[in-house]
Specification:
Layout: E1 8-12, H1 17-28, E2 32-37, H2 40-50, E3 53-56, H3 62-76, E4 81-84, H4 99-109, H5 111-127, E5 130-135, H6 149-169, E6 174-181, H7 187-190, H8 194-202, H9 212-222, E7 234-237
Helix pairs in contact: 1-9, 3-5, 4-6
Length: about 250
């Protein structure tokens, strides 16, 4: 099951973190994987490490997204899977947030999702097949956290976009779903400091943080042929973080 041999998969923001975990799992499942990232150095290094391919991408630029998909179809003759994963999460309290903070977040997290999904549709519709997997978050759609109002709004917005987009693509053989990670031990999360990491572990029933590969396995399932009857849905991968009603439930 979940054999992606002969499938061409595009992972945006695939140079590190969750994107790298997704790319690694897809490669191991047999897919030809293209890592698309704005960080050329990290992207090339990741592609070499995983046995994948690297293409430059700025998801906030519609032309860049269109050019990327055209290059993938030109070089590999098909596009079967899009894992739209690129995202940023700089912390900023609401009282000090500027319009630029808000716009930068949404330009990458939400508008970038729109640009990449739209750019991929023609190639998928031509073959009557496609799997699109968005990387959303539990923060926004399910939970909240101080300092991430702009991030939370962008992640909740992705799911509203996904549900309507899934309806538009339902008869084209294209599914659109989302993975909603909890706290995953990436470079970005580690940058929050050890105290933050320990607080997060304490709030999770497993008392562990997830790994990028944990999200990769969930994305691989939604990207598989076996997931053909699932669209417009979300899969939370968080070690049970959203379950407890109170701190006592974790004892």
């Amino acid at each position: 099951m979940f054999d992606l041999t002969d499938q061409v998969a595009l992972v945006t923001g695939g140079a590190k973190g969750i994107g790298k975990g997704i790319a690694r799992v897809l490669v191991n499942a047999g897919a030809t994987v293209i890592i698309a990232d704005i960080d050329e150095t990290a992207g090339k290094a990741c592609a070499e490490e995983l046995g994948a391919h690297y293409f430059y991408l700025d998801v906030s630029c519609q032309a860049s997204c269109k050019q990327l998909v055209s290059a993938v179809v030109r070089d590999f003759e098909q596009l079967d899977i899009l894992c739209s994963n690129t995202g940023i999460f700089p912390q900023c309290n609401l009282a000090s947030m500027t319009e630029q903070h808000w716009d930068d977040m949404h330009s990458i997290n939400l508008k970038g999702t729109f640009f990449m999904v739209q750019a991929s549709l023609e190639a998928m519709r031509m073959r009557g097949y496609g799997r699109i997997v968005l990387t959303s978050s539990i923060t926004g759609p399910v939970t909240g956290f101080p300092g991430w109002t702009h991030y939370a709004a962008s992640k909740a917005g992705q799911l509203g976009f996904m549900r309507s987009a899934a309806l538009e693509c339902a008869r084209d053989g294209i599914t659109i779903n989302a993975v909603m990670p909890g706290n995953i031990l990436t470079e970005g999360l580690q940058a929050q400091g050890e105290e933050y990491l320990e607080q997060m572990k304490a709030a999770i029933p497993t008392h562990t943080l997830g790994t990028p590969d944990d999200i990769g396995h969930a994305a691989c399932f939604l990207a598989s042929k076996e997931a053909r009857y699932i669209t417009g849905q979300t899969l939370i991968v968080d070690g049970g973080q959203v379950l407890p009603e109170s701190p006592e439930a974790l004892q």
